[in-house]
Design brief:
Layout: H1 3-7, E1 11-14, E2 17-20, H2 21-27, H3 33-47, E3 55-59, H4 67-70, E4 79-84, H5 87-100, E5 104-108, E6 136-141, H6 150-163, E7 164-174, H7 181-187, E8 200-203, E9 206-208, E10 218-220, H8 222-232, E11 235-240, E12 256-261
Parallel strand pairs: 3-4, 3-6, 4-5, 6-7
Antiparallel strand pairs: 1-2, 7-12, 8-9, 9-10, 11-12
Helix pairs in contact: 6-8
The chain binds S-adenosylmethionine.
S-adenosylmethionine binds near residues 83 and 89.
């Protein structure tokens, strides 16, 4: 093997796309990269009406791990918009996914975030989802509300209510918590892969795993999230229990899923 070949970045093969490893791992675990994406698509089909969706937005799309299989699922006259705060992920997705399917667009939000975009110039409130009011059928976010604070979640929820058509849906994977769960999570050494206990209830119904680590992992009670959704103009439709609590009762692997809907009238 020549010198030039040795320094080429290794790539992850995802449905035939070669995603540079240094970007792929920022989107998801490499050992389950394809498997998790397959689960994401199944959840959208099972819980959020993907089969009837033409216009779709994904928040926190990373390199487009879920956009890539959606290229073969969404109708040709449909559209997909992916938004992320990591510039390299968006650049790669544009150069590869949009180049193949121009109705798939990717937009960078230069939001300051110590973990994902430390050099970010702006706050979340500076951004609007670049879609017309009432134009979208489905919005989804996997592992994004898992580290967001209430003001930023509220900002996204109000944007979702603006761009969704009546009857349109949001599917978000996240951690949902109750005060009574803290002692159980501590006793078992924490839930999820990162031993999460969410033992700091920073505000009523808003939990932080470790306030020393910012953004770190965050969780919401269903009551708090439901109130935020209603305030934004959405209604909670469905809760799907994830396995992260390790108590043996779950419908899906990993995080919980929450489905919200924009009322039809
Ligand atoms: C754990 S990764 C998940 C990526 C993707 N959802 C998936 O599962 O394939 C979380 C992603 O959310 C992005 N992100 C974090 N905060 C965000 C924000 N405020 N708006 C949009 N994306 C954000 C990160 O840059 C990162 O790509």
């Amino acid at each position: 093997m020549g010198k030039a070949e040795q320094i080429l970045p290794a790539a992850v093969d995802h449905h035939g796309f070669q995603i540079p490893r240094h970007l792929a791992w920022r989107t998801g675990r490499l050992d389950r990269f394809r498997e998790v994406s397959d689960e994401h698509i199944t959840h959208l089909q099972t819980y959020a009406g993907l089969a009837d969706a033409r216009h779709v937005v994904e928040i926190g799309c990373g390199v487009g791990r879920d956009a890539i299989p959606l290229m073969h699922i969404l109708p040709r006259d449909g559209s997909y918009l992916g938004i992320d705060i990591i510039p390299g992920s968006i650049e790669w997705a544009r150069a590869n996914v949009s180049a193949h399917s121009p109705h798939f667009r990717f937009v960078h939000f230069d939001v300051a975030d110590q973990q994902h975009n430390p050099g970010g110039a702006n706050a979340m409130e500076c951004y609007k989802i670049p879609c017309r009011d009432g134009s979208q059928d489905l919005i989804f976010l996997y592992s994004v509300f898992t580290h967001m604070f209430p003001d930023d979640v509220a900002r996204y929820l109000s944007e979702f209510a603006r761009v969704l058509r009546p009857g349109g849906r949001v599917l978000a994977s996240m951690f949902t918590m109750e005060r009574g769960l803290i002692s159980y999570l501590k006793a078992i050494g924490g839930g999820g892969l990162r031993s999460l206990t969410f033992s700091h209830e920073v505000e009523d119904g808003f939990f932080h795993n470790d306030p020393e680590v910012v953004p770190g992992a965050t969780a919401y009670s269903l009551d708090r999230l439901g109130a935020m959704a209603v305030k934004a103009g959405l209604v909670p439709e469905r809760f799907v229990r994830g396995s992260w609590r390790k108590d043996g009762e779950f419908d899906v692997n990993g995080q919980d899923l929450v489905v919200l809907r924009k009322p039809a009238f």
